[in-house]
Amino acid sequence: MTMAFRIRHGSITLAVLLAGVAGGAGACGRAPAPSPPAAPAPRPDIAAGRTLYRQTCSTCHGPAGGGTPSGPALNRGRQEPIPFASQTALTAFIQANMPANAPGSLSPAQAADVGAYVWTLMYPRH
Known about the structure:
Blueprint: H1 3-28, H2 46-56, H3 58-61, H4 87-97, H5 108-122
Region (Disordered): 58-81
Domain Cytochrome c: 44-122
Signal peptide: 1-27
């Protein structure tokens, strides 16, 4: 092989390698493809919330949400309105703070179910 052939062949090989590296580097700088959107959270189940409320909350808040010496009333019989602007805020409070003897022990779905039920005690439909 002649020297000119080796130089030309080496230059072509180098150009191909550099093109591959440059193309790969461009791919590394790209953001990953977005993941598909998460499935929407299921709607809270008021009936399941009522059952869980009776099992977990009624000891302190009473069977119908009327309150006891251990916990405040949650129903519309209260003198003062409950300080939650939305069912979402109520659910977040329940998730983080209830039950009082085991705060944070309810799953997000359980807290949402109880929150939906308690919301019906606070704001019953007529």
